[in-house]
């Protein structure tokens, strides 16, 4: 009991202070509906009603994220030094870090309000996957992002049913709806807390280190807890599906991929790898084909049942692959390269704008991603199916037309549970640190325009703060930049 208390005091309290500051800052620069009683609160009015108040709120966000990142890095450095908290201690630490954010306004995205209005649309008898929320009166006052006003909803029937239930219960209180929808995201986080260490242990990977990297990661707090993204539920279901597959319950694993698909269709990428688990290592081609067909059957029966039960969401596939691509984000390598080429071709008069170049480069990236996924499926070699799924989803994210910060969390748990080398772990930590800077800079926007920074001073301050907390201590520098010690040379994440 004493070691658990010591771990909570050393790691839980500092991170909890960080998220508490983040929650206070969210009152000033987080997302709120235009019509909510919370705006009449004196503290909220103080933080939102003047430039000085907004500056103070942004300062709380900067400081809170810096403290949270530092707490996470210190915990990781302790793991390097074999000062190992137990898994129950990590669960308590995650609970402490999450608690201040549960009732705070969403930050880093306002998608959760769009979820609510989509539920209202479904409640009104329309299919959100075929039309935008702009047809619902009061959608803007409810906090939905105008960017998606005319866009169909890219979510499946399970999440549509959750949206409708919340809209029915909470209407007309959009803020209450946002908090309830955050609860669905928290379910996904709980699934990660429970099943990431189980799946890591199956792969011979240190469950404590895997949980630190994939669950206590600041990006999880920022985008799954504060931002309340439904990706959390999809990712949690996929981790459980792979755990079931690893325990020779592949039919249930494939069925659960069907449930995850009915949250967000991108989950279908995992299905062939459940089939590979089913076939087993070294399986022949006939054995693989049989396993893939059985997995597909379980998946289709589950997904079809969910679509019929909700009787909506039939346009989800076209919406899922069409709606996000309307965003131009510098975070996506293919879009960034396309925009640079487009600016050059426009400057020399070859094209009227950058759209043709962006389209061509995005298409090349998407084709490359599909080829990579096909190779991972058809040539598994000695790679574990979970690692194959991580690489496939990673390829889809990196080479896809759009990257949002929370998309990185689609693959991170699967990488963590299937084992990372020391260098791979360092890359994951550095990416987490970089996207924490991104969160600071874009702390009250949709975080989709990293290079479109209007306030350069904000960016410089964010980089300076993160560099200070990440590199000030020799232990954190070793975690981020140091060479592996002898006991880590064969893969730091492995036991």
UniProtKB/TrEMBL annotation:
The chain crosses the membrane at residues 12-34, 54-75, 174-200, 212-245, 251-279, 291-310, 330-352, 359-378, 390-412, 424-441, 453-472. Keywords: Glycosyltransferase, Membrane, Transferase, Transmembrane, Transmembrane helix. It is found in: Membrane. GO terms for cellular component: membrane. Pfam families: MptA_B_family. Coiled coil: none annotated. InterPro entries: MptA/B-like (IPR049829). One of its GO terms (molecular function) is glycosyltransferase activity. It is a multi-pass membrane protein. NCBIfam families: MptB. This is Unannotated protein. It comes from freshwater metagenome.
């Amino acid at each position: 009991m004493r070691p658990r208390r010591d771990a909570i005091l050393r790691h839980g309290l500092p991170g909890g202070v960080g998220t508490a500051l983040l929650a206070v800052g969210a009152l000033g620069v987080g997302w709120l509906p235009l019509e909510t009683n919370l705006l009449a609160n004196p503290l909220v009015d103080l933080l939102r009603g003047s430039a000085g108040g907004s500056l103070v709120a942004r300062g709380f966000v900067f400081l809170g994220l810096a403290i949270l990142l530092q707490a996470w890095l210190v915990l990781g450095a302790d793991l390097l030094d074999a000062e190992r908290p137990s898994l129950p201690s990590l669960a308590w630490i995650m609970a402490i870090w999450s608690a201040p954010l549960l009732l705070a306004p969403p930050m880093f995205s306002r998608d959760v309000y769009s979820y609510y209005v989509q539920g209202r649309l479904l409640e009104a008898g329309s299919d959100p996957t075929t039309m935008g929320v702009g047809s619902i009166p009061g959608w803007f006052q409810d906090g939905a992002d105008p960017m998606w006003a005319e866009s169909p909803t890219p979510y499946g029937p399970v999440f549509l049913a959750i949206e409708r239930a919340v809209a029915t219960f909470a209407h007309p209180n959009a803020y209450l709806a946002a908090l309830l929808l955050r609860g669905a995201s928290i379910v996904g986080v709980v699934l990660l807390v429970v099943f990431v260490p189980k799946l890591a242990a199956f792969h011979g990977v240190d469950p404590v280190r895997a949980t630190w990297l994939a669950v206590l990661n600041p990006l999880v707090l920022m985008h799954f807890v504060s931002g309340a993204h439904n990706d959390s539920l999809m990712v949690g279901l996929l981790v459980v599906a792979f755990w079931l597959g690893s325990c020779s319950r592949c039919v249930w694993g494939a069925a659960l991929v069907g449930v995850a698909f009915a949250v967000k269709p991108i989950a279908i990428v995992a299905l062939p790898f459940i089939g590979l688990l089913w076939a087993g290592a070294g399986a022949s081609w006939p054995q693989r084909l049989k396993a893939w067909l059985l997995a597909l059957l379980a998946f289709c029966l589950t997904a079809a049942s969910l679509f019929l039960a909700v009787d909506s969401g039939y346009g989800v596939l076209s919406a899922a692959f069409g709606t996000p691509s309307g965003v131009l984000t510098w975070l996506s390598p293919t879009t960034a390269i396309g925009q640079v080429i487009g600016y050059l071709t426009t400057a020399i008069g070859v094209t009227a704008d950058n759209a043709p170049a962006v389209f061509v480069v995005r298409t090349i990236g998407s084709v490359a991603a599909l080829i990579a996924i096909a190779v991972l499926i058809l040539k598994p070699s000695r790679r574990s199916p979970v690692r194959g799924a991580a690489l496939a989803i990673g390829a889809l994210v990196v080479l896809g037309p759009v990257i949002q910060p929370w998309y990185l969390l689609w693959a991170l748990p699967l990488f963590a549970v299937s084992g990372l080398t020391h260098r791979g772990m360092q890359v994951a930590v550095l990416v987490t640190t970089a996207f924490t800077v991104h969160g600071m800079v874009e702390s009250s926007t949709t975080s989709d325009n990293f290079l479109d920074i209007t306030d350069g001073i904000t960016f410089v301050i964010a980089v300076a703060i993160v560099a200070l907390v990440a590199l000030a201590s020799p232990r954190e520098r070793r975690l981020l930049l140091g060479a592996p010690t002898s006991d880590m040379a064969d893969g730091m994440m492995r036991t």
